[in-house]
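Inverse folding, one chain.
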């Protein structure tokens, strides 16, 4: 074949192609608006305002140079590859897993060229302005164009690599090497982009052109327009973004309750949502003040979502795994054993930087507030300091460093309160000293997502998994090789059958969803009652699960647990990752249990337990709990086909309730006290009056905590529990205050109630505020609330404030 070093001679006379692509006036580009936008994109992708001679930038730039030198040294253009380890020639091109790998290698080849271009363009890499490197990059671009990514090629494998991954890396490289490219070369590259990403890619908001993917496609179109001096392309990119802003009521996008969904059924705030946030920040900044500035008033929805959708899932710099989809399985890879393991902190840091970037296009007040939030998250991330993040891009690093060094910014403390996200069946609970997150599934939200050979054993992550972190402890709980080493049948908070499931059981891309309606809850913004009607994945398991999120406690109830799988059913109270050493003391009813591995015991009649450095657990009335310490081995390759085969070892302390084989109407009850001391846990267990379990049956589950003035009931069916009577299935929580008022939060998790009547046998003198869904209210010795149609409320809490008698 003709090598990329020798081709092109005939193209120099093909000026017609260049003109057709909007390149005919390229000689004047230095003075036009497109030159300004190219320069701005260069700054956005390289970063600004940092000292390349001082760390953390000095060492990062040196590392970039080292990596680039290795890539340059191993580049060996050949038919079907640019690097020997990245063969992209597919002998049987289609869309199977093998073809995904080949198309991924093509994508990665462009990514490596982008890395080389950054090393060439950045100061302090040892390769800055190196003419030999520049020639190698251009040769690599020519080779990939001639061999695989051109206007005559039919795509194979993963569409993403052709429409987003490769063209983004290609266009970024073209911006950085603009002056080294001839008009003919640039015309060819842009023709390839036009072939794989035509205008029709954003013609409708559907398929793979929604949410984060739509933003990525718009980034490709915008850069193609900037490089090709095409005003129409840039305008198309800007206008196509408008479909992303409005709240959606189904499928992909942002919801009014703060949910973010991608792939139709997957909660994705921390992965695809991160991509969308970062992409919008870049495009808003790129186009600001230009002819194509983003002025759609609906972009305010994105600004509002910083605190409405993203902030609730950020804690001490990490983004919670319950909204990261299959990204939780991306750790060390087989292709690059030196790669840094991905985790919740490393996924969180880019979101922090993207929030700072987005602030450039927001109001001064919003930007100031966000920078204060970011500074707080950065300061509190003791586990994984953002400025030491080895994979955070240099521009993002510069943005975070600027916030840290800005003396006018005062860090904001972690907010407290409860947030329900019924459109993606997630909840977050934040208290002084700790935070928790809950993941559920229903007929709209998948059990879990697998795909591309990733997250092969995430089967039970939607079965009521309860995550929690402390303010100054346990921030590495899910970061430190948790996913490849944890028992996937014993995820904390879940109820699951031990029936063996195949890798990727249920199908790719969130295909499997439980046929249940009653999943959701009610909150007053500080406390909450939440419930999940659980049906197991490829299992006969059914259960009713409830959580009551309070000031220092999460009360967990389960009832109606049944199964005919012929296997044991377990509810996992806790499964703490104690790291490689696993030395945390474990105390049960005042007795310190053995710290040896392995160890197991049945704790008969246990009243309370405590894990040193973590928290406490109370079992009302006593319970039979199985406990074990075990050293578990696993590799990332067991949960991700592209993962490293290196065997990792972590030690776990697990507590679970064994419901036996094929249980009938089994139940459980326990309290989680994050951060509690052993003495505090003992005291809570010794106070029989603190908690009253009002009901724990297949029909209703409810609790009363008199000292907090809290009542919470999940009515799986209408009926009476304590002082509450509901005409139909619903969720109710009440918080009474010392000032003689109370807030009653009611929801219709099933989204099926055209009317609902709730009676509270408590003296009430007046209703002081109510939602529009409240049709009537009767006060006096008891309160009767009659709601109208709740089907359009999307499971949201309807809050009524009353004055007590």
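Residues assigned per position:
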């Amino acid at each position: 074949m003709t090598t990329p070093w020798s081709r092109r001679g005939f193209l120099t006379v093909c000026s017609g192609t260049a003109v057709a692509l909007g390149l005919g006036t390229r000689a004047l580009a230095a003075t036009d608006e497109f030159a300004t936008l190219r320069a701005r994109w260069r700054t956005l992708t390289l970063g600004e305002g940092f000292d390349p001679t001082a760390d953390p930038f000095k060492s990062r730039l040196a590392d970039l140079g080292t990596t680039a030198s290795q890539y340059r040294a191993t580049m060996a253009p050949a038919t079907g590859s640019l690097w020997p380890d990245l063969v992209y020639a597919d002998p049987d091109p289609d869309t199977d897993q093998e073809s995904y790998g080949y198309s991924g290698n093509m994508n990665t080849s462009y990514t490596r060229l982008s890395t080389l271009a950054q090393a060439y363009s950045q100061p302090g890499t040892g390769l800055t302005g190196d003419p030999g490197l520049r020639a190698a990059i251009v040769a690599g671009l020519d080779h990939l164009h001639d061999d695989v990514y051109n206007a005559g090629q039919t795509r194979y494998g993963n569409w993403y690599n052709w429409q987003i991954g490769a063209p983004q890396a290609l266009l970024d490289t073209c911006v950085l090497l603009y002056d080294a490219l001839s008009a003919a070369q640039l015309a060819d590259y842009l023709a390839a982009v036009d072939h794989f990403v035509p205008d029709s890619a954003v013609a409708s908001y559907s398929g793979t052109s929604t949410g984060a993917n739509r933003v990525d496609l718009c980034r490709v179109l915008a850069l193609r327009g900037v490089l090709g001096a095409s005003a129409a392309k840039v305008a198309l990119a800007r206008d196509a973004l408008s479909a992303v802003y409005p709240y959606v009521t189904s499928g992909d996008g942002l919801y009014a309750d703060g949910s973010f969904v991608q792939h139709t059924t997957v909660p994705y705030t921390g992965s695809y949502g991160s991509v969308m946030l970062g992409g919008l920040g870049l495009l808003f900044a790129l186009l600001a003040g230009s002819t194509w500035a983003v002025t759609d008033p609906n972009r305010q929805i994105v600004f509002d979502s910083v605190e409405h959708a993203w902030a609730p899932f950020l804690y001490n710099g990490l983004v919670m795994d319950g909204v990261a989809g299959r990204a939780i399985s991306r750790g060390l890879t087989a292709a690059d054993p030196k790669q840094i393991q991905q985790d919740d902190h490393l996924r969180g840091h880019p979101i922090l930087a993207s929030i700072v970037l987005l602030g450039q296009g927001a109001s001064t007040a919003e930007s100031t507030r966000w920078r204060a939030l970011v500074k707080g998250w950065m300061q509190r991330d003791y586990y994984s300091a953002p400025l030491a993040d080895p994979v955070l891009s240099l521009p993002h690093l510069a943005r975070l460093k600027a916030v840290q060094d800005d003396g006018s910014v005062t860090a904001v403390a972690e907010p407290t309160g409860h947030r329900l996200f019924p459109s993606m069946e997630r909840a977050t609970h934040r208290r002084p000293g700790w935070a928790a997150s809950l993941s559920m599934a229903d007929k709209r939200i998948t059990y879990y997502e697998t795909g591309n050979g990733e997250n092969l054993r995430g089967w039970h992550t939607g079965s009521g998994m309860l995550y929690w972190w402390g303010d100054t402890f346990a921030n590495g709980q899910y970061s430190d090789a948790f996913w490849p080493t944890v028992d996937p049948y014993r995820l904390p908070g879940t109820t699951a059958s031990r029936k063996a499931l195949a890798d990727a059981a249920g199908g790719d891309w969130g295909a499997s969803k439980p046929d249940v309606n009653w999943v959701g809850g009610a909150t007053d913004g500080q406390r909450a009652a939440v419930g999940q009607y659980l049906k197991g994945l490829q299992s006969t398991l059914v259960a009713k699960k409830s959580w009551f999120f309070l000031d220092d406690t999460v009360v967990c109830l389960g009832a109606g647990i049944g199964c005919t799988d012929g296997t044991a059913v377990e509810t996992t109270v806790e499964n703490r990752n104690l790291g490689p050493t696993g030395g945390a003391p474990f105390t049960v009813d005042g007795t310190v249990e053995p710290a040896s591995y392995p160890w197991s015991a049945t704790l008969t009649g246990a009243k309370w337990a405590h894990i040193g450095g973590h928290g406490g657990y109370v079992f009302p009335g006593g319970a039979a709990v199985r406990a074990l310490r075990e050293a578990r081995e696993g590799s990332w390759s067991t949960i991700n086909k592209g993962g490293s085969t290196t065997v990792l070892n972590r030690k776990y302390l697990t507590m679970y309730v064994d419901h036996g084989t094929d249980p009938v109407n089994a139940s459980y009850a326990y309290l989680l006290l994050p951060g509690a001391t052993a003495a505090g846990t003992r005291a809570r267990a010794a106070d029989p009056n603190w908690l009253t379990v009002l009901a724990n049956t297949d029909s209703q589950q409810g609790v009363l905590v008199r000292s907090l003035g809290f009542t919470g009931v999940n009515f799986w069916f209408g009926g009476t529990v304590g002082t509450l009577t509901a005409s139909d299935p619903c969720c109710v929580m009440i918080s009474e205050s010392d000032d003689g008022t109370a807030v009653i939060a009611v929801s219709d998790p099933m989204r099926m109630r055209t009317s609902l009547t709730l009676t509270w046998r408590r003296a009430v003198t007046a209703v002081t505020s109510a939602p529009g869904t409240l049709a009537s209210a009767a006060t006096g010795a008891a309160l009767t609330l009659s709601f109208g149609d709740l089907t359009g409320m999307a499971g949201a809490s309807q809050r009524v404030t009353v004055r007590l008698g």
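The first strand starts at residue 253 and ends at 254. Residues 117 and 176 are 6 Å apart (CA to CA).
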